[in-house]
Amino acid sequence: xxxxxxxxxxxxxxxxxxxxxxxxxxxxxxxxxxxxxxxxxxxxxxxxxxxxxxxxxxxxxxxxxxxxxxxxxxxxxxxxxxxxxxxxxxxxxxxxxxxxxxxxxxxxxxxxxxxxxxxxxxxxxxxxxxxxxxxxxxxxxxxxxxxxxxxxxxxxxxxxxxxxxxxxxxxxxxxxxxxxxxxxxxxxxxxxxxxxxxxxxxxxxxxxxxxxxxxxxxxxxxxxxxxxxxxxxxxxxxxxxxxxxxxxxxxxxxxxxxxxxxxxxxxxxxxxxxxxxxxxxxxxxxxxxxxxxxxxxxxxxxxxxxxxxxxxxxxxxxxxxxxxxxxxxxxxxxxxxxxxxxxxxxxxxxxxxxxxxxxxxxxxxxxxxxxxxxxxxxxxxxxxxxxxxxxxxxxxxxxxxxxxxxxxxxxxxxxxxxxxxxxxxxxxxxxxxxxxxxxxxxxxxxxxxxxxxxxx
Length: 456
What we know:
Layout: H1 13-26, H2 35-40, E1 49-54, E2 57-62, H3 82-93, H4 95-111, H5 118-142, H6 144-147, H7 165-186, H8 189-209, H9 216-234, H10 268-292, H11 294-300, H12 305-308, H13 310-335, H14 341-345, H15 347-363, H16 366-389, H17 396-405, H18 413-417, H19 421-427, H20 444-455
Antiparallel strand pairs: 1-2
Helix pairs in contact: 4-5, 4-9, 5-7, 5-8, 5-9, 7-8, 8-9, 9-10, 10-13, 10-16, 13-15, 15-16
């Protein structure tokens, strides 16, 4: 049916209906609208449509006119309470991820052979947490339209409009400035520069690459490997070899007769070992998680290896899981951060994770991916705890023996004045030997005399 432009019949509702049917028959794909088309084009939600004749055929044109809604239909928004604001800030900061980043930074402080103080430890942890909060906030600001399309992220505060983008930007700027300033003031400029660079690397290059190339995962792994370097440099450790701090290798005792000097552990090999540990840990951790959420990543248009090539995703995961075994068995003891006993005790956790990653590579299933991801959650804390247990120059046996056999009199002073000193000491096993003439033979009378002499 042909419609004459400008005729009375062309302006009637019946003609517009017939023109719409003709356009649908000529273009059947236009009649099928999926969820994504309605999501991206807000105009398709409008009920009013007009038909504009074009070369004798009607074309459906959605009207831009909308009827204003009465104010009675709007609900008054209440102001956020301080508790709600803190909850929003914790979600913008990705609290669990920030806690993990802070743990890795403090591990660098704990593993450093250089002396440190409590203010340096606390300022490093707080400064790193502020840098992580800023990077995560700027990341969410840029990904609002993409987070809205993923079931895993559509409840984030910016997506559900719990906070405005301006408010989130102010929070990101404040934390992004406060973190490096705190690190610069309390530690040193190198640590502050590393913190600021990590913000730019995560919120800038990594976020941009997520929709451009699969290399975003490798950039994200570098971001995860920098926090332990921040803890290392906060104590004054060197990242690059110099004449004053060359690279040293700590060989096993049966291969060398030279005495070990724990101060020689302040070499770049130790910093590199900490970086590689967190760098390689990222791949089996994230690749297994991205395999479980690959449908959401595909819907949002992210270029993830789990979306483009699931098999290669498992290969990369297995490769770095296997790499962690020689890292713990050779590089850490050679760098002097740990003793060679660490190579023995860390073998079992590495073997368990390698087995899970191998099953993930062989089957490429969601069950195996979930097991690999769950193993990554306990693997890192266990390895860090074993590193502290076997830290070079740390003799835990002597420390426990000093507490058990030679307790500080002031620690039991309150027990003595309480009248139940002997029973309390026995309950806390501070007197393993109570017989006369035995090792550690001391009684309450001697402690009383020693305390009275010190008080006088």
